[in-house]
């Protein structure tokens, strides 16, 4: 399985988070590439089986969080795909607000299947992110569907 990690970072924290994610993916699968969005082509995205897509949080600290314009431009140029497994990630300092909803709005219409999200204030991976990482690496459509069905049964 080929995993690609693409990040947009202004001051290095999101890059660090991407590299931390890469270390763990490398350990689990032995096949990972981590690169900035400036160095990423449509072909790179087409070629991967699992995509981690990250961006720093931009807003007014207590409200209005959204991806940076460079990330939005990049997302518009991403190729259309058919259900490519995608995990979104961001770094922030106080509040990430609706970052993931906003990021998702740009990629879902292009066929990206967002199966999780991870955030960090310092580029380190917390227990929640580890759980998302494990889930994304072991993701199987059938398991996902079953999870949804079972959850629906008890709720
Ligand atoms: C213009 C600007 C706006 C920001 N807005 C927010 C915000 O709304 N909420 C927040 O928690 N952090 C905000 N931050 C902090 C960054 O999201 C945070 O430092 C992030 O880790 C930066 O990532 P980078 O080092 O990869 O560039 C802002 C930073 C800048 C420069």
Main sheet attributes: strand count, strand direction, barrel closure: 5 strands, parallel
Mean pLDDT: 93
**Structural class by sheet pairing and helices:** alpha/beta
| CATH architectural grouping | 3-Layer(aba) Sandwich
CATH topology: Rossmann fold
Termini gap: 34 Å
Rg from Cα: 15 Å
What is the 3D shape?
globular
What is the CATH class name? Alpha Beta
Please report the total strand number as a whole number. 5
Tell me roughly what share of residues is in helical segments: 40-55%
Write down the secondary-structure element order.
EHEHEHEHEHH
Count of domain modules: 1
Oligomer: single chain
State the fourth-level CATH superfamily: Flavodoxin domain
Count the helices. How many?
A: 6
- Bound ligand species: flavin mononucleotide
Q: Tell me the β content.
A: 15-25%
How are the strands of the largest sheet arranged? 2-1-3-4-5
């Amino acid at each position: 399985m080929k995993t690609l990690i693409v990040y947009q970072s202004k001051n290095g924290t999101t890059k660090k988070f991407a590299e931390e994610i890469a270390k763990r993916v490398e350990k689990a699968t032995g096949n990972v590439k981590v690169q900035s969005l400036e160095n990423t082509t449509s072909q790179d995205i087409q070629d991967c089986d699992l995509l981690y897509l990250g961006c720093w949080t931009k807003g007014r600290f207590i409200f209005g969080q959204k991806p940076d314009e460079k990330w939005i431009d990049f997302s518009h140029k991403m190729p259309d795909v058919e259900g490519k497994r995608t995990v979104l990630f961001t770094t922030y300092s106080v509040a990430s607000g609706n970052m993931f909803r906003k990021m998702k709005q740009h990629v879902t219409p292009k066929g990206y299947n967002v199966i999780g999200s991870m955030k960090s204030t310092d580029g380190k991976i917390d227990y929640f992110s580890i759980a998302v990482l494990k889930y994304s690496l072991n993701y199987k459509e059938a398991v996902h569907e079953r999870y949804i069905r079972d959850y629906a049964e008890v709720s």
